[in-house]
User: Fold this.
Amino acid sequence: MLKVIISGGGTGGHIFPAIAIANALKAKYNQVEILFVGAIGKMEMEKVPAAGYKIEGLNITGIQRKISIGNLAFPFRLLKSIWRSRQIIKSFKPNVVVGVGGFASGPLLYAASKLNIPALIQEQNSYPGITNKLLAKRVQVICVAYDHMDTFFPKEKIKLTGNPVRNDILNLSGKRERALAYFNLKEGYQTLFVTGGSLGSRTINESILKNIESFAAQNIQLIWQTGKAFIGTAQDAVAKHADKGIYAFDFVTKMDYAYAVADLVVSRAGASSVSELSLVNKAAILIPYPLAAEDHQTKNAMALVNYNAAVLLKDEDAKEKLGDIVLDLMNNEEKRHKLEHNIMRLAIKDSAEVIAAEVYRLATADK
Assistant:
């Protein structure tokens, strides 16, 4: 029996790759038992059980960048989380542990290294966070999605695998007609898909809100994922434009359908979003979250922009410029197709399966 712990979470950008790796392990190997370890109060505690997996929670949070009383408690939470991680590892007895980033990943992988359990990091971004940099010397394999990561990690440990994505988006063939019906959209009209990530983006939401009337006037249909905090405002704004195919959702569960009908995508530049856009070959306007650690979203976006595979718009310029850029691209089919062609060339396929094979190799290396 292959026993694997997968740790991390916090955002969909960590959770969905983790679930994709778990699904690939189950599909590839007959006897495998998987346990997730996440942070109490974070979205993995809901999303992982919904995907059919067991999860244990650690009482761990990150350090606030601004001065905060909560930071005083961080060392105690960290030590307690390491102790709890040791308990989980000794009880579950994994052959290998996998860290995908997020608060829980650090304590779990640190504890595993102390207990001589082989470990693998899956680094999604083009610029790694502090936790993975620190863990790099303790793990055996580091799976990355971008070239030139030996700037941050030992070259001999790196495997270029790409980022795992949700299985349902890997094949969009034949889904367009079903997607049109699902979103109540009309064939023959251009469609814009907007997503600020699973939690939503205030900047992107306010920028779209400003341009609703322009999109309606140009007969541009809209699938707008707002996150829970903005959905009320968004639904009020789109209510009078339903006949134009303009809709707002707090969360889009059928991402494959959204991609299948999209002529253009507006998105943050999280690692999973960038990887998904590459695999579905969609022209995209990327608006990096400016407060992401080490500004890694801008670096993710530039990995595409440098190949003319996406358009970069700074967060601070979005409210003023997003509408015009959307309209320009919608009216320039040649430019959109060039972006689609270039982003397709950057896609790395079968990432989850490749990482699953590395997990299995690590687990069985001494057998």
In short: The first strand starts at residue 2 and ends at 7. The chain has two domains: 2-163+349-363, 168-344. The chain has 14 helices and 13 strands. Residues 168-344 form a domain with the Rossmann fold fold (CATH 3.40.50.2000).
